[in-house]
Amino acid sequence: xxxxxxxxxxxxxxxxxxxxxxxxxxxxxxxxxxxxxxxxxxxxxxxxxxxxxxxxxxxxxxxxxxxxxxxxxxxxxxxxxxxxxxxxxxxxxxxxxxxxxxxxxxxxxxxxxxxxxxxxxxxxxxxxxxxxxxxxxxxxxxxxxxxxxxxxxxxxxxxxxxxxxxxxxxxxxxxxxxxxxxxxxxxxxxxxxxxxxxxxxxxxxxxxxxxxxxxxxxxxxxxxxxxxxxxxxxxxxxxxxxxxxxxxxxxxxxxxxxxxxxxxxxxxxxxxxxxxxxxxxxxxxxxxxxxxxxxxxxxxxxxxxxxxxxxxxxxxxxxxxxxxxxxxxxxxxxxxxxxxxxxxxxxxxxxxxxxxxxxxxxxxxxxxxxxxxxxxxxxxxxxxxxxxxxxxxxxxxxxxxxxxxxxxxxxxxxxxxxxxxxxxxxxxxxxxxxxxxxxxxxxxxxxxxxxxxxxxxxxxxxxxxxxxxxxxxxxxxxxxxxxxxxxxxxxxxxxxxxxxxxxxxxxxxxxxxxxx
Length: 516
Hints:
Elements: E1 21-31, E2 34-43, E3 58-62, E4 69-70, E5 90-97, E6 100-107, E7 118-124, E8 131-132, E9 152-154, E10 157-159, E11 163-169, E12 177-184, E13 194-201, E14 207-215, E15 223-229, E16 235-242, E17 257-264, E18 279-283, E19 288-296, E20 299-306, E21 314-315, E22 319-324, E23 327-332, E24 341-345, E25 354-356, E26 359-360, E27 363-364, E28 369-373, E29 376-394, E30 397-406, E31 409-416, E32 427-432, E33 436-441, E34 449-452, E35 460-468, E36 471-476, E37 479-485, E38 492-513
Antiparallel strand pairs: 1-2, 2-3, 3-4, 5-6, 6-7, 7-8, 9-10, 11-12, 12-13, 13-14, 15-16, 16-17, 17-18, 19-20, 20-21, 20-22, 22-23, 24-38, 25-29, 26-27, 28-29, 29-38, 30-35, 30-38, 31-32, 31-38, 32-33, 33-34, 35-36, 36-37
């Protein structure tokens, strides 16, 4: 369900992105009720006159985690030739201590083509004006905890990993701090060496290395770590990884990249991955990535960068960080309801529904039937699958429904609005009898992203589809299961679908999301 390439100027996403720039990794700090987002950015592809600070760190603020106001960029690269710090800064974090703010970032130098990474520090009194620390770098990779003297070769060039640091207070030592960053120890093959390094400081300037907090030889790269404690007393670490880093990561489902989680009884680790449960968000190439959390209004939230295609990356809305037992998951946050919108209909005034008979050349599928009765939609199809379409054409919207299943699979369908029926096949989101959630395109169900639902076993599910073109999120029982991009930027005809059995959709509510 990858987005079709088209002119960026024709697309006006509802989610935040900086003007005329591409954004990616993002991190957050809340101060005096205002959320500050800091992010990596670069000039928009094709820009003839990029802003002079286009390669500085981006900065935006929000009072509700939904609507963001772009601020002046911060921390531009030093002039060319400046030792160790004249390239675009990479990911870091921001913390507050004693009325002062400390921003850590990944330093890169043109002297070594950005191959040797170090951690730099900038300091601010107000979060808007920053000055580099004169003693940078404050952290450098140190053997044996990181590979430095024998770096790996990537693209013919040696790379020394020391990036994406996150800093938290040390719960065991008052006044001390712990830092976690993406690193690598030397091993015979690259796949064996990915670690999350651990450092400790008493003053946020001088740091000592401790044994790595996480070592997972199954993953060739572990990036953008985040560490936090949940209400069960355990500590959780999230990391970005994927097939594109050089190995086929052991995901549990048909996905290629995403953010995983690991758990420990202590912030020093070791953090352990729980097989078949470790996916937090995952998908295909258009999957969200670069997850970081923030505590806002006494609740831990997670946001991620939404990847679509170069120039269209946006910031996701906040997701609720929650637990099912000890299993970490992301849930729908009511903060999203702060978006402007209007309810279109509910179970008291449902639009009519009609059978859509999909065809592929000369093949025609079994029709099945759909009906609306007593504020519910009922669909059945004996052995094939069938789509029922309403007369509603929508762009940005949210729909929720309870699904009673006695069938192989069921869910929500969207048929792209077009002048012709040729190749105008519906997109579908759903859950099957094995509790696998998937998003795909008819009639071949390809490509498909699939994730196993691990929540409560039942025959009645609550589903939620949120579409802010070109992005979508699909929830089951308000747990985020799938997210990615649409393959059309236009209005969609809303419907439902059923496969091999009977389904009832009740408590259906559809709302339009309005742009501001």
